[in-house]
Amino acid sequence: MEPGHTPVMPREILEYLQACACTTVVDGTAGGGGHTRLLSRRFPEARILAFERDPSAAARLKETFENTNVLVFNESYTGISDVIEKNGIDPAGAALFDLGLSSIQLDNPERGFSHRGSGPLDMRFNREEGEPLSSALCKLTEKKIADIIYRYGEEGRSRVIAREIKRSAPLRTTDDLTGVVRSVVRGNPVKPLSRVYQAFRIYINGELDHLEKLLSDMHKWTAPGCRVAILTFHSIEDRMVKLHFRDSPDFSQFDPPWMLPSREEKKSNSRSRSARLRLGVRQ
User: What pTM did the predictor assign?
Assistant: First the structure.
């Protein structure tokens, strides 16, 4: 496990997944490898397929889990079905997805994910694909920027923030974006800043499109009885997962259908405070 990275709800996840007897386990969002390590130890006879979009994070994972039962793929979780089919791997009997941002990415100012650091305004999971936020903001209209902030960040001051972003363009660094938000928000700016950064991260990485494809393809690579655990941190993605497990003909909700982190975990790991663990079972 990378220094500074603490996996969210590890006890609850293992208690839920350990009932599965399987030869293939998927960690669709390996990140810093915290959950991956737990799965590797819990299922020593299974192949753990670890997927990670970020090339630098995937390289660290390959080094960390060399000569273990973990196979690392520098792929989005949207590619799970292709990987399993091309490599002749058995369908998964257990799967985990942590839809939050890795602490390692969040704490690296060069990635531009956080208002707490000073660095380029990038926000891409994979810096070899797409364009950084600094470039995108120059092309987006004020209305589109406001829509992004409101939809993905649920920030009520989206219009005034968007107006100031266009007025202050170009924004090249996190300090530039942070300064804009601070200039138009009265009182404590921490929550509005977190919402704005979250909104732009979701937009730049197409996170909801990826999640939609994951959910629609999940039946292709899961075995009957496969248990799927998905950690959500945002109301939109949480609702998408909830409705899929509730309404899909291929999945059903577990009982209980969701869990929250304990009070103790929320105190010791601030990243867990907005987490919700959704649980589904392949029919």
Answer: 0.94
The pLDDT tens digits of the residues spanning 77-117 come to 999 999 999 999 999 999 999 998 877 788 899 999 999 98
Question: Where do the domains of the chain lie, and which CATH numbers do they carry?
Answer: 10-104+207-282 (3.40.50.150), 126-204 (1.10.150.170)
How is residue 44 written in tokens? 């020593």
Which residue, among 112, 134, 136, has the nearest Cα to 125 in the 3D structure?
A: 112
